[in-house]
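Thread: quick sanity check before group meeting

JM: Hey all, I'm pulling together slides for Thursday and realized we never actually wrote out the predicted structure for the chain we discussed last week. Dropping the sequence here so it's in one place. If anyone has concerns about the input, flag it before I start.
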Amino acid sequence: MRWAVTWLGFLGKRVWVVADGAYATAPFLKPMRAIGVTVVSRVRKDAVLWTVPGPRPKHRPGPKRIYGERRIDLAKRGGQRSGWATGTFTLYGKPATKRYRTFVATWRPAGGAIRVVLVDEPPGWVAFFYTDTAASVADILGSVAARFSLEVNFRDLKDIVGAGQQQIRRVRASVGAFHVCVWTFTMTEAWAWGRQADALVGHHTTSPWDDGSRRPSHADKRRAWRRELLGEEIRSVLRPELTESELRAAAAERLLDLAA
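JM (edit): ok, ran it. Output follows.
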């Protein structure tokens, strides 16, 4: 992150980090605050939060307080029926209505003030925080939703492309195999970038339970590209002057390649 701040600083860009809840700890949050990086992450329901300190009385010398005197109980705030608002936000590429409540608190692991957003979900409320107290709820929820796309990519890399399943032992071979998997994933996404969704999802006559209006998955794109490559190979063989014996020989050679 220090490297990213150094290089992006020449462009005048602010750096935001959307991290898993495991990074919501002082060893990460405080250095990020020190270099001006904004962090978005989850906060535990039992986190020890404090109120924002009020102005220091003039007759009390010393620096301004960082943390307030009253503790905030997240579980109580999440269980209250009042104080919730409803808004529509663009999440995962489409509008979604969420019930939420937000407030500013201070948190020692973050080294100061944070904005907390409680979101009422069907399994129960969840809490997120943002180290920029001026951020809006749309900024926070949009960042959290955008991060989930990374989890989907990791899942596709493992389940569809097969990253991590190579039977190799050496470190350099493992790195090379992972590079091949990532490049395969990237080239498939690049090939499907400008194509229509209905052409990628596939033929629903063979899968009537499938939803034809859904967004194409990486597996759909991979199958569509494979069909196109196979079709080009077949069309290159089916020339007008092709004889039956040549066609059989080409088909047998292709079947042997697939079997091998």
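AS: nice. Residues 194 and 200 are 11 Å apart (CA to CA). Residues 195-259 form one domain.
JM: adding both to the slides.
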